Amino acid sequence: MQDGKYVILCVDDDADMLEALQLVLESNGYHMVGARSAEEGLKTYCQVRPDLVIVDLMMEEVDAGTRLVRDLKAEGNTRPVYMLSSVGDNLNLMTDYSELGLSGVFQKPIDHHNLLAVLKAKLK
Fold first, then answer.
1. Cα–Cα–Cα angle for 17, 46, 92, nearest 5°?
2. What is residue 46's three-state secondary structure?
3. HSE on the CB side for 3, CA within 13 Å?
4. DSSP readout, 73-91?
5. pLDDT of the residue at 95
6. What is each CA distance from 46 to 3, 41, 81, 102, 107, in whole angstroms?
7. 3-class DSSP state for residue 68?
8. What is the mean pLDDT of residues 41-56?
9. Average pLDDT for residues 28-43, to the nearest whole number?
10. What span, in angstroms and rounded, lies between the C-alpha atoms of 34 and 98?
């Protein structure tokens, strides 16, 4: 927490997506920190220690998101981590969340109501 607000780390190489997430999160009482690559995301995670992490699946490399999730786990992360994907609902059917250490997957375009409901449920 920072200044009484939960801190959400969002990692996505799409500046528009980060801006949209920041608008939604900060207008609903969360503090968002953003990163534009897996490497920057890991550095930011180590500095900030956010309450929840949202990671884009495909960034600078196809597996950058999954690699970052594994790196977060190696850093001892126990906070919820969600994957952000435009791959489609098939990812939900094909991915074993627990194997990757994920709490779930958000589909792009992200449903803001669903996002806020998940945050409210996970961050108590």
1. 45
2. helix
3. 5
4. HHTT--S-EEEEESS-THH
5. 58
6. 19, 9, 14, 18, 26
7. helix
8. 96
9. 96
10. 25
Rounded CA gap, 70 and 81, in Å?
11
Task: Tell me the average pLDDT across 68-73.
Answer: 93
* Residue where the block lists tokens 């495909």: 58
- What's the pLDDT score for residue 88? 58
The answer to whether the CB of 95 falls within 8 A of the CB of 81 is no
For residue 109 the two structure tokens come to 């375009």
| Tens of pLDDT, residues 74-123 | 999 999 999 988 765 555 556 566 677 889 888 888 999 999 999 999 99
Q: Are 57 and 97 in contact (CB under 8 A)?
A: no
CA-closest candidate to residue 53, choices 86, 78, 87: 78
Residues 64 and 38: beta-carbon distance below 8 Å: yes
Pairing assessment for the beta strands 31-35 and 104-107 based on DSSP bridges: unpaired
CA distance 19 to 35: 11
Place of tokens 């699946």: 57
pTM equals 0.90
